[in-house]
Amino acid sequence: MFFKRNEFDSPAGVPSAGGDSLVVRLQGRPAARRIALVLVPAVLVLALAYYLLVGGKQPAAAMPPAQIAVAYPLQRNIVEYDEFTGRFEPYRSVEIRPRVSGQLAGIHFRDGDYVQQGQLLFTIDPRPFAAALAEAQARAAAARTAAALARAELARALRLLPDEAVSREEVDNLRATARSAEANIAAAEAVARQRALDLEFTRVRAPISGKVSYRRLDPGSQVSGGNGAGTLLTTINAVDPIYFTFDVSEGLLLKAQRDRAAGSSAPQQVDIRLQDEPDYRWHGQVDFTDNGIDPNSGTIRARAVVANGARFLTPGMFGSMRLSTGRPVTALLVPDSAVMTDQAGKAVMTIGKNGQPTPIPVQVGPVVDGLRVIKSGITPGTKVVIRGFQRMMPGVPIEPKLTKIVPERTAQVSPAALPQASSSARFAN
User: Fold this and answer.
1) Most buried by CB count within 10 Å: which residue of 258, 341, 359, 415?
2) pLDDT of residue 68
3) 3-state secondary structure of 77
């Protein structure tokens, strides 16, 4: 490439170094130029990529700490009690079976009715039994007539005996005949009474008051009577009052027996709730403990009597029962929602000295006013997490906020939280 001198003039006032026009020739290098054309765009691309991937990315903002609510366990004086699961059973239960055989003639109740003692339930065709009664009464009348004749003949012979008109042997025979006739009267009258009972038994009545089940047979069916082998017609359950039966472990029985040695003999009170009830609204008292421990289960059967005037409770219902031990103690309580359950058992989440959440296994007791009794595992100074579990995640800092545990007041105050006189746990003898 050539440039003329005037294209590279010296600055004003500076003389040129060569006099006339100087022609300079620059020899180009095509290989170096091509390398430069390739490297420059590559460097620019790398620089842009570095800026986008590293230089343009702002550092991530730190996550704010998760706020959780913690509280010290609530200390309250309560009366301890043990919990059981049991079943309601009728106070009395009777199977209605006929005492005579025959054809069922009538049914005088509706299935599921409440019947009174002595109320007519079934009628068996009475005609065969009425005929048998009439026959027995006729035989009794004949026996009385024969006895009267025997007495008259004996009296006549006794009048003739002084005149020796009859022998003493004949008088003895007449006396024996009269006595046999009297015996025949008794036998005939007994048969007549039995026939009268059979006729009465054709009218099957309720032996107790209670709720009757459905009829097992319809009119026209043949039924058989007998002791223990009669046809089952229906059943009646007395449900006011009603029994609640439950099983007590041997360990609890031993504890109750030892506590009873120093206590009174008053009946032990129980509180019961059904499966859909939050409160223990049914109350009764223990009236029976079995005479031995079942060797298969290691438990003993106990029973409580519960008033059921409204007939709401039905035999066969399950219920949860608590039995007071009668010993007031100071207990630690936390919200029931703060207790976690896993395969290892029960636990609560606590805040350790290092400020980090730590689960602690606990042994729980009953619920009192919405709070769960903690028997062991924590102390009054343990900080228990009561809200904000969902915010605690690995790597996320926490911000515990101390609060207070407040019991839930219900319409019906829990008997376990009421002040009670000191007594002892016991079962019926």
Assistant:
1) 415
2) 85
3) strand
